[in-house]
Amino acid sequence: AILIVEAPVLKIPTVSATFGKLKATIGNSGVVDATNVSWNILFTGGVFIGKNTSGIIPTIGAGKSTEVSSKFVFGFGKTHVTVTASTPDSTATLDKDLKVFLFFFKF
After folding, report:
1. Which of 72, 78, 92, 97 has a Cα-to-Cα distance from 2 of 20 to 30 A?
2. Which neighbouring-strand residues pair with 41?
3. Model-level pTM?
4. Exposed e or buried b for every residue in 52-71, given b needs 16+ CB within 10 A?
5. Would you call 31 exposed, middle or buried from its count of C-beta atoms within 10 A (0-12, 13-18, 19+)?
């Protein structure tokens, strides 16, 4: 017998920048809701204030997405950002190199 287990499928298709903050879209392309989604935005190098932001999203519906945002970020130079989202059944990661000048980002 074949057992098919339905699970959420997390994805992080995009990141964007606003004044002093980085935003990430976290989606669930699965057929069941994703619950208690842990997320994290981590900057490595170049950022002095706001290096790490994390939180919990109670639910991302099947086929839906939501946006999360970093704390206010201040820095200078090249930086690397890693955005992660996870549940016990699914994990997604997005890595991106960018530059930060004070509170502006350049991809």
Report:
1. 92
2. 53, 83
3. 0.92
4. ebeeebeebeeeebbebebe
5. exposed
Provide the pLDDT confidence category of residue 27 given band limits of 50, 70 and 90: very high
Closest CA to 49 of 98, 99, 103: 103
Task: Say yes or no to pLDDT of 6 above 90.
Answer: no
pLDDT at residue 106 in the model: 87
The residue to which tokens 């997005």 are assigned: 94
Per-residue confidence (pLDDT) for residue 56, from 0 to 100: 98
User: Nearest to residue 105, comparing CAs of 83, 82, 76?
Assistant: 76
Place of tokens 């170049």: 46
Strand positions, DSSP E, the chain: 10-18, 21-28, 34-44, 47-49, 52-60, 65-69, 74-86, 91-102, 104-106
Determine which helix (DSSP H) or strand (DSSP E) holds 75, and give its type and residue range: strand 74-86
